[in-house]
Amino acid sequence: MAVKKKFYAIAAGRKPGIYTKWPDAQAQVMGFAGAKYKGFATKAEAEAWIKNPIYSAQAGKAKGSKGKSAPAKAARDGDIIIYTDGGARFNPGPGGYGVVMMEGAKRQEFSGGYRLTTNNRMELMGCIIALRQLKKTTKPATLYSDSQYVVNGITKGWAKGWRKRGWIKSDKQPAVNPDLWAELLELVEGLDVEFRWVKGHAGNEFNERCDELAVSSAGKNNLPEDKGYKG
Fold first, then answer.
1. What is the value of pTM for the model shown?
2. Burial (CB count within 10 angstroms: exposed 0-12, middle 13-18, buried 19+), residue 220
3. pLDDT digits 0-9 by tens, 197-215
4. Which residues are catalytic?
5. Burial 22-37 (b: 16+ CB within 10 A, else e)
6. Distances (CA, A) of 86 to 31, 47, 141, 172, 200
7. Under DSSP, is residue 111 helix (H, G, I), strand (E, B) or coil?
8. Gap between the Cα atoms of 185 and 180, Å rounded
């Protein structure tokens, strides 16, 4: 079976253009303040967007495209909808996280960064920052992340197992990022929240916005120290 090709259009970055590999595209935008970029299924869509780089729920979709800006699986009725993302340039390196939280017509965005951290720590931090906002609510929430590391860690019970074994994995190796996992588990256990995985860089409006927030945060000056990072 032929591998479906992906095209990444970079309108604002170190070297604007169209890339076919995410690591190459990421190197142009991670840590670049004001970066603008988006993923597409075809080169023609990427070329059209780069001429008029506007973010919207329908941006980059060809007529008849099967791509959707909303998750394939609908959220539960009355849910607070959360999207999170995070990343670090060079991994480890300057990193940031982004959060979009929606409750009815109300929409909030949160972001931040650190001068030396990792992709996974920023993915976790995005979720933590989001769930900290829910500490005083009893409403159900659905959190979408493009990190299988985070989603599987929660939904498959991996993180609970690590904690039970004193932050040791099933292969007897130390679990990474125990400080963040510990806080995330504590937050999750006090909330009605469901974690779901969403494909990253696939044209989802809210995932793209979180990524934009994360990249922008990673590019800021005088970022604080990630005191939990053990390099």
1. 0.72
2. middle
3. 999 888 888 999 999 999 9
4. 85-86, 123, 146, 201, 211
5. eeebbbbbbbbeebbb
6. 12, 26, 20, 28, 11
7. strand
8. 9
